[in-house]
Amino acid sequence: MQPVLVTGAAGGIQGSTGRHLTAQLLGRGIPVRALVHTDDERAAPLRRLGAEVIVGDLREYTTNRTALDGVRAAYFTYPVIDGLLDAAGAFAVAAHDAGLGRVVAVSQLAAGPQALTPRMRQHWVAEQILDWADIGAIHLRAAVFHENLALLADTGDGTRLTLPLGPETTVLPLVAATDVARVAAGLLTDPTRPADPVLLLTGDIQPIGAAARTLGRTYTDTPPERWHRWALDFYRSPHAAEHLTKLWEIFRLLGEGTNLYQITPTIERYGGHPPTTLAAFAAHRHG
């Protein structure tokens, strides 16, 4: 059986969908070729699971062309750092040259040409690049990961979740990274399964005050400029700090949300599992 290529397979501090997907595909008996940027301690568990690990830079055509040789489908994701469009371009050309018929790619819920953060606009451009390559791209426009919110809740003194979101009634659309991976696994296990080219993924909708309490914290508002300074030090990436500060600003302005915030049937339809609520995620995390 031809393998599926999974990029971002080592995972990082954001959602680690590539790592979850690798485990899920291997659990179904689907061989996986896992592309990682660095052969470090995160790559060892992938090998123990049975993945074929390839090391390389996703922004380079030669890395992608080698990784795609002989695969039947692929998963494209890129961390919240500089280089998304470079990676999308190199991957798209290599996938076209390799003759792929299905690529599942992670995007963002509100991606679009007029989106209010540079990262969201870049995701929309990346979608266009992958579509133009004629490789059967399906874009998973995901909400804020439970994992990312929990990561922030674990900082500081362990009692507060500090974000520049205004009042505790400000609403966030959320999704578990494992659910994003489940949807991808469903689409990649059977590359002929029909699906819309853009799928929205939201598994829970919570006011930030309630979300903080679910994670065992008390929500505390903070000025955006102060949070941005903290994020620069925490993420060690100006790109991530700028994107997240702008993202929280959007949610702050939207307040109690818009009709874009809807729990989507896509997760159960393609992932075979009802959406994971933030409460279920928190219980499993501490169970």
From TrEMBL:
Domain NAD(P)-binding residue range list: 12-191
InterPro entries assigned: Ergot_Alk_Oxidoreductase, NAD(P)-bd_dom, NAD(P)-bd_dom_sf
Record-linked Pfam families: NAD_binding_10 (PF13460)
PANTHER family to which the protein is assigned, alphabetical: PRESTALK A DIFFERENTIATION PROTEIN A, PTHR43162
Protein name as catalogued: NAD(P)H-binding protein
Species annotation: Nocardia pulmonis
